[in-house]
Design a protein that fits this description.
Layout: E1 12-15, E2 18-21, H1 32-36, E3 39-41, E4 44-47, E5 50-51, H2 54-67, H3 76-90, E6 95-103, E7 117-125, H4 132-137, E8 139-147, H5 165-176, E9 181-185, E10 191-194, E11 198-202, E12 208-210, H6 220-231, E13 236-238, E14 251-256, E15 260-267, E16 270-271, H7 276-291
Parallel strand pairs: 8-9, 8-15, 12-13
Antiparallel strand pairs: 1-2, 1-7, 3-6, 4-5, 4-6, 6-7, 9-10, 11-12, 11-14, 14-15, 15-16
Length: about 300
């Protein structure tokens, strides 16, 4: 399935309160979400047929929509139920769920006060976000020429479609140079995140350092990994990190719903080891996401 284009797949998609055939889940060309990025979404992992942290993801979806001036015409419970219904219809055991909310086509200009709000939920089987062989030895990142915008210029604490444009530009540039992903700096030139995941560094004493999420998304997986690390007695230091400080760290990894915990071996001229601490955190994370479903 992974090689089949997404518009050619089969099954059902939850679309505006009911299931429709995958091929019939269409929008008009002149919709506000496409032209003006009036769109928010979530990305959720399915483990053994259950969605991990579903309620947290749905709450963030509603927060993102509110920040974008979008009123979702369903309750959080209805969206949760739609996500569950979709993975049952699609028979997804280990995969991904994508709820998405966008403004429709009633008005086509900057203003969109009268546009209908559409909601859809799609799900599919999906393996590792990064190549498992690359993850084993750590992926390689360049440093993007694009930066995370000033927090006063964008709704930075949302999962909004428009915020990912520079991520696509950064990742394409990285891949064209032989890297797997790209490290993005914030508007002040501090380390921010990768194109779709938060970042952590390990120092010689075993402490973990991670940027303060004040201009980029504070990921659900990020918060989860912080809790796991603290339960292991690992000190977490959230602070501003300058790019040149990466020379002082011995380990590095990314966290995200799609990325899970992904070790990093190279960022530009800086090298890191896939140490036991990172492997241990990854093992603990996998136990956490699957433990309630294992019985």
């Amino acid at each position: 399935m992974e090689n089949i284009p997404y518009d050619k797949r089969t099954g059902k998609i939850w679309y505006n309160s009911g299931m429709v055939d995958w091929k019939d889940a269409k929008v008009h060309l002149l919709n506000h979400g496409l032209h003006y990025a009036s769109c928010v979404f979530e990305g959720e992992r399915v483990y053994n047929g259950e969605i991990f942290k579903l309620e947290e993801h749905t709450k963030r979806l509603f927060h993102s929509a509110k920040r974008m001036g979008i009123k979702i015409p369903y309750s959080e419970k209805e969206i949760n139920d739609a996500c569950k219904e979709t993975i049952i219809f699609q028979k997804v055991s280990d995969g991904y769920v994508r709820p998405v909310v966008w403004r429709g086509s009633e008005m086509m200009a900057i203003s969109a006060q009268k546009n209908k709000i559409h909601v859809a939920v799609a799900a599919w089987e999906w393996g590792s976000y990064f190549d498992p062989k690359l993850k084993l030895n750590g992926i390689k990142l360049n440093i993007s020429s694009w930066r995370r915008p000033h927090p006063n210029s964008v709704p930075w604490d949302t999962k909004a479609a428009g915020l990912y444009m520079i991520c696509t530009l950064s990742k394409h540039e990285a891949e064209s140079k032989g890297y797997t992903d790209s490290l993005m700096l914030d508007h002040e030139g501090n380390v921010a995140e990768a194109t779709g995941a938060n970042i952590f560094f390990k120092d010689n004493s075993g402490d973990l350092h991670t940027p303060i999420p004040d201009s980029f998304l504070d990921g659900i997986t990020r918060r989860c990994v912080i809790e796991i690390a603290k339960s292991k007695g690992i000190k977490i230091i959230e602070r501003k990190i300058k790019p040149e400080e990466m020379s002082t760290f011995v380990g590095c990894f990314l966290t995200g719903t799609a990325a899970e915990i992904t070790p990093v071996s190279v960022i530009d001229k800086f090298n890191f080891k896939v140490c036991e601490t990172i492997k241990g955190l990854s093992e603990s994370y996998q136990k956490l996401v699957r433990k309630k479903f294992a019985a």
